[in-house]
Amino acid sequence: MPEGFVNQGELVHEAASRELMEETGLSLFLSEADFISYYDALKRDPRKRIITFTFGKLISGEFEIQPNDDAKEVDWFCIEKLPQLAFDTNLTIKCR
């Protein structure tokens, strides 16, 4: 699950699309309709306030992904069998 910060003047769904491309090379347009939930627990990061917005998109077919930017590795996982992810990412993933 790519994560990153929203740039000045950028909408949250635009940031999600950008981060997906930067981290995996996968170009998908994420819109407000793809918004799933948010996670805003206090003190998640000692440096500053962090709020996570999660987006999801159902895709079919085969897509090649490559680690880019600050991602060391990328892979596809079944949502029910996720490995331990960085930070508190496992807590932020919710399915509807």
Report on the architecture of this protein.
The chain has 96 residues and is an alpha+beta fold. The protein has a single domain, classed as Nucleoside Triphosphate Pyrophosphohydrolase. Helices cover 18% and strands 9% of the residues. It has two helices and two strands; from the N terminus they run H-E-E-H. It has helices at 12-24, 89-92; strands at 35-39, 52-55. It is globular, with a radius of gyration of 13 Å. The mean pLDDT is 89.
Features:
96 residues; alpha+beta; Nucleoside Triphosphate Pyrophosphohydrolase; two-stranded antiparallel sheet; 9% strand; globular
Compact description:
The chain is of the alpha+beta class and 96 residues long. The protein has 2 helices and 2 strands.
Secondary structure layout plus pairing:
Layout: H1 12-24, E1 35-39, E2 52-55, H2 89-92
Antiparallel strand pairs: 1-2
Main sheet: strand order: 1-2
Looking at CATH, the homologous superfamily is Nucleoside Triphosphate Pyrophosphohydrolase
**Terminal CA distance:** 17 Å
Give the H and E element order.
Answer: HEEH
Largest sheet: 2 strands, antiparallel
What fraction, in percent, of the residue positions are helical? 10-25%
> How does CATH name the architecture?
Alpha-Beta Complex
The count of helical stretches stands at 2
The CATH topology assignment is Nucleoside Triphosphate Pyrophosphohydrolase
Any idea what the shape is?
globular
Spans of at least 5 consecutive residues whose pLDDT stays below 50 are: none
Mean pLDDT: 89
> What oligomeric state is this?
single chain
- Report the structural category: alpha+beta
Number of domains: 1
Strand content: 5-15%
Q: What integer value in Å does the Rg equal? A: 13 Å
DSSP summary, beta strand count? 2
In CATH's first tier, which class applies? Alpha Beta
